[in-house]
Specification:
single chain, mainly alpha, about 0% strand, elongated, transmembrane helix, membrane, DUF2243_membrane, transmembrane, DUF2243 domain-containing protein
């Protein structure tokens, strides 16, 4: 009879959760803010959507953005599938959910920092209180990332790796 192997490896689960979080965070942003609410589009600060031609340019770039986040989501699913095939992976909803939150938070924070602040290609909600919306987006991303990190780290104590 074979000895039961300890499931102590968490990195594959964490990596898949982070990548899935990045992808789904981006899809959520694209679907909610770009398409449903139409608060902004990918290039709306540099190519304002005042003409049909400018709207088409923004829609194409929104499509590239959505395609990239969709690819990240597929990659996350692939990594999760691979993690499931490994016998030493410690399966934990807490670790996986923490990694998802970390990924979504990292997406929000870095997308907000790069696109809203550094490049200025669009803002969360242009116009009145634009900076407050942008800063709130950064803060939300940081809170989600920190919450995810705390969940992941709290699980280390449970499995004895902390």
């Amino acid at each position: 009879m074979e000895a039961k192997q300890l499931r102590t490896q968490r990195n594959p689960l964490i990596a898949s959760g982070i990548i899935l979080g990045l992808g789904t965070g981006g899809l959520f942003d694209g679907i909610l803010l770009h398409q449903i609410l139409q608060w902004h589009h990918m290039l709306s600060s540099v190519r304002p959507t005042v003409t049909v031609a400018e709207m088409k340019v923004n829609m194409v770039w929104d499509g590239f953005f959505d395609a990239a986040t969709w690819i990240l989501t597929l990659l996350g699913i692939f990594l999760l599938w691979r993690a499931g095939e490994q016998k030493d992976v410690f399966w934990s909803g807490k670790t996986f959910f923490g990694a998802l939150l970390l990924g979504v938070g990292l997406f929000d924070f870095f997308e907000g920092l790069i696109d809203h602040q550094i490049l200025g290609i669009h803002h969360v909600k242009p116009g009145t209180n634009e900076l407050i919306w942008d800063i709130s987006f950064l803060v939300l991303g940081a809170i989600l990332a920190i919450a995810g990190w705390i969940l992941i780290k709290s699980e280390e104590k449970v499995i004895g790796n902390g």
